[in-house]
Amino acid sequence: MAGTGGADSRRAAARVVVFPLPFQGHISPMLQLAGALHARGLAVTVLHTEFNAPDPARHLEFDFVAVPDAIPETVAANGIAKILALNAAMEASGHVHGALASLMASASAEREGEPRRLACLVIDSTLTATQKATAGLGLPTLVLHTGSAACFRLFRSYDMLHDKGYLPSTESNLDMPIEELPPLLVRDLFDPSKLPNKEIGQMILNLATETTTNSSGPLHKLIASTNGGDTSLLDQDHSCIEWLDSQAPGSVLFVSFGSVVHVTQDEFTEIAWGLANSGKPFLWVVRRGLVLGVEKQQLPDGFESAMEGRGKVIKWAPQQEVLAHPAVVGFWTHSGWNSTLESIYEGVPMLSRPVFGDQLATGRYVADTWKIDVLLDGVLERGEIEKAITRVMDENTGVEIRGRAKELKEKVRMCLESSGSSQQAVDKLVDHILSL
Ligand code: UDP
């Protein structure tokens, strides 16, 4: 007991600063990690940009410090360019360095008279400017990589992929298996040379690998109370839960493509008709800006009557609650890592349509290694969509995939038990932070 008391007082004397990249898929896991550290007795300060700032009122357990981001309006609308602009602006302004220096100075004069040593900074892997900002401060930095370990390994293999001729990809090698990284095919690689601005693509790839990783496990369930609502940047429409209550158990497909990917107008139309023609009930998240270049997208003419009340379209869902609902039997996702973990945690098999970056490899792993996902690649077309929906949801064809999703769910839940591997990983991380 004496030993535990010693550890407790060391924890109470330590504070951690976390700095997420200001996008939904990055803010949520960082705040979940912060919650897990706080639950183990560490104090937490969230350093954040003004753009996409988290809501302090939903996290009374943390302190919040805003850093001016100074991103030019012209780049604010472009997701990838914004990451680079954010880094450049932070580096040029020196605001992060200043904020960290003043946090370190005030750490010893904590509120309520409790001095707390600033033990370390935890940053998102794409915020290299923040890592540089710590220079000369003597503040250790840890990095949270918000994608899967497998994708991190892939991103680190890009030199090899070029050396062996897999990249740059060509129309004829897209289906070539990458022998060194099964089960990936060339089409699953994020190929910066195919982006309109290859330099930006390459720089993002470098950012994601330049810093190091220190993360694994379903962070969103490491803290008992989380349901996703507290870290959501957009208002979640809870009316869909009532609608799900009125649906038969195991009957609904949930469709959501996360917070950043776009679809073209043609793809949007094909998705709508694929869903309507499938004959299955569905809950579809059409967030503002989902269709490229369209501010307020319109559902196709005749779609509402074709749905015959089987479908519900909303702007933003309480996704974790939806996936946990007994009416939901499948999830059409863009293979974002958070969405993938949330689906696995609830034992919901997926239909996936990855769009860019790590989503491509994640979709392949989930389909070919874990076999709990039907991968929809190639041109999006209503007939193919309908077939894929049937494969995931059908009483007969979906049996195996649903069985494997349930098995994986059990494994994940074991990792989260008090002596499970995810809990042990966080304990180790806390020990490491205290040793810094
Ligand atoms: N999300 C949500 N409501 C929605 C759609 C998504 O709360 O209607 C949440 C989802 O639970 C997940 C995050 O947004 O935690 C999306 O992260 P992910 O890594 O899957 O994708 P990204 O948005 O980064 O592409």
TrEMBL record:
Highest taxon above the source species: Eukaryota
CDD domains: GT1_Gtf-like
InterPro entries hit by this protein: UDP_glucos_trans
One function term, GO molecular function aspect: UDP-glucosyltransferase activity
Keyword Transferase: yes
Segments forming a coiled coil: none
UniProt-listed Pfam families: UDPGT
Keywords for this protein: Transferase
Entry similarity comment: Belongs to the UDP-glycosyltransferase family.
Descriptive protein name: Uncharacterized protein
Organism in which the protein naturally occurs: Urochloa decumbens
